[in-house]
UniProtKB/TrEMBL annotation:
<dbReference type="InterPro" id="IPR036271">
    <property type="entry name" value="Tet_transcr_reg_TetR-rel_C_sf"/>
</dbReference>
<dbReference type="InterPro" id="IPR009057">
    <property type="entry name" value="Homeodomain-like_sf"/>
</dbReference>
<feature type="domain" description="HTH tetR-type">
    <location>
        <begin position="15"/>
        <end position="75"/>
    </location>
</feature>
<dbReference type="Pfam" id="PF00440">
    <property type="entry name" value="TetR_N"/>
</dbReference>
<keyword id="KW-0805">Transcription regulation</keyword>
<feature type="DNA-binding region" description="H-T-H motif">
    <location>
        <begin position="38"/>
        <end position="57"/>
    </location>
</feature>
<protein>
    <submittedName>
        <fullName>TetR/AcrR family transcriptional regulator</fullName>
    </submittedName>
</protein>
<dbReference type="Pfam" id="PF13305">
    <property type="entry name" value="TetR_C_33"/>
</dbReference>
<dbReference type="InterPro" id="IPR050109">
    <property type="entry name" value="HTH-type_TetR-like_transc_reg"/>
</dbReference>
<keyword id="KW-0804">Transcription</keyword>
<keyword id="KW-0238">DNA-binding</keyword>
<dbReference type="InterPro" id="IPR001647">
    <property type="entry name" value="HTH_TetR"/>
</dbReference>
<dbReference type="InterPro" id="IPR025996">
    <property type="entry name" value="MT1864/Rv1816-like_C"/>
</dbReference>
């Protein structure tokens, strides 16, 4: 697709302009992160006038918040997909493997889709009172809920005690998010791939041992 400010807008043929603008914003975020999610750019990508976007988004942050939610949903879906791949029959080992799988999925998403990852955690907030219903794609559990369910499963199968479970999502999420940030934008950015895998394995192992 040709990109540039001098491109003529395309005729709008979509049935849902709001979703078309979010879709455009998601693609902008994928390559440029949250700073690329601009109302004017999304309008151009959707093939509509800049003013048309304001019928659905109050301002720039309103659009970014919707795009961030979509990116967060993408992260959740990958976590769920990786977790559902675990088919170990032993209930305890399965629950433990499912927790590890969502941790790896989180790190995989950050490294494979850095623009989406940065956008998902951009802290943008939607404009209050927009009255817009959420898209079906965005109605998936958020990563916190996915993690919480995996930890609850560990309790249900007797892998950890309720006392160990209490507040564990904060430590687990902090561990994988911190490593994701260090690998993406921090001093571990240029770490050789074998060391990246070692770092991932170590962090996940420490989380697992801390719960035991």
């Amino acid at each position: 697709m040709v990109r540039g400010d001098d491109r003529e807008p395309r005729a709008y043929h979509h049935g849902n302009l709001r979703q078309a603008l979010i879709d455009a914003g998601v693609e902008l975020a994928r390559t440029g992160g949250p700073n690329a999610v601009l109302l004017r750019a999304a309008s151009r990508e959707a093939g509509v006038s800049h003013n048309a976007a304001y019928r659905h988004f109050a301002n720039q942050e309103d659009l970014l918040a919707a795009v961030a939610q979509r990116c967060m949903s993408r992260l959740s879906l990958l976590m769920i997909e990786r977790m559902d791949r675990i088919t170990t029959r032993d209930r305890v080992r399965r629950a433990q493997a499912r927790l590890g799988a969502i941790g790896r999925a989180y790190l995989e998403f950050a490294r494979a889709e850095p623009g989406w990852f940065r956008t998902a955690f951009s802290s943008a907030r939607p404009h209050q009172g927009s009255g817009e219903a959420p898209a079906a794609d965005d109605a998936v559990p958020n990563p916190y809920d996915v993690l919480s369910a995996a930890l609850d499963e560990l309790v249900a199968v007797g892998a950890i005690t309720p006392e160990r479970r209490d507040g564990a999502e904060y430590a687990a999420w902090s561990g994988v998010h911190g490593l994701s940030s260090l690998l993406l934008d921090g001093p571990l950015h240029d770490l050789p791939e074998p060391e990246v895998e070692r770092a991932i394995g170590t962090v996940l192992a420490v989380i697992s041992r801390g719960l035991s």
